[in-house]
Specification:
Elements (H helix, E strand, L loop, with lengths): L11 H21 L5 H6 L5 H16 L10 H54 L6 H16 L17 H8 L5
């Protein structure tokens, strides 16, 4: 097996709790987040690492030479803005780490699932020599191998013709709805 003996699948309760926690955080951030349009993202000045140093320097020098700044400029607002940027960047870093952890975890589960799939497929192929009614099940599994080898399992063949042949169970799995 790919996964070692120390591997533990999370319980359905743990997964439900994680989903609730994650969606709760997203909902809280949505309340205050500023959505940017594609135009905003491409045309407005952004602050990368170099820009951050520039902004911190401007904040320091702005406080130092306040008498030369417009009266409408509030250095306290600038300071709060920079502090919020720094704190949110830390949270963003945690989410990038979480993204990497989840990507690896999901990939490992997929690898293990494919190992088990091959075991089932191989066992049914061997049993088919003595139990001919397994032909239908094998043809269904073979369809996946055939389209995977051809590189067009996304539902269409190389000419765009619909090749999707899902059983009701497979459609249920693909829909993401596990409760029905």
């Amino acid at each position: 097996m790919f996964l070692d003996n120390n591997f533990r699948l999370p319980t359905p309760e743990e997964i439900a709790e994680w989903k609730l926690d994650a969606s709760g955080i997203v909902d809280k951030i949505k309340e205050v987040a500023v959505p940017l349009s594609m135009e905003d993202r491409s045309t407005l000045r952004k602050m990368g690492p170099h820009g951050l140093v520039y902004a911190l320097t401007a904040s320091r020098l702005g406080l130092q030479h306040l008498e030369h700044l417009p009266r409408s400029f509030d250095p306290a607002d600038f300071d709060v803005l920079l502090k919020a940027h720094a704190e949110l960047s830390i949270i963003h870093s945690y989410f990038r780490q979480l993204d990497e952890l989840l990507s690896d975890y999901i990939m490992a589960l997929g690898i293990e699932a494919m190992i088990k799939t091959k075991i089932v497929h191989d066992a049914l192929r061997i049993a088919n020599f003595n139990v001919p009614e397994l032909n239908t099940a094998l043809r269904e599994l073979d369809e996946f191998n055939k389209c995977a080898g051809a590189g067009h399992c996304a539902g269409t063949d190389h000419k765009g013709k619909d090749q999707t042949k899902l059983t009701a169970f497979q459609g249920h799995l693909c829909s993401g709805d596990r409760n029905t």
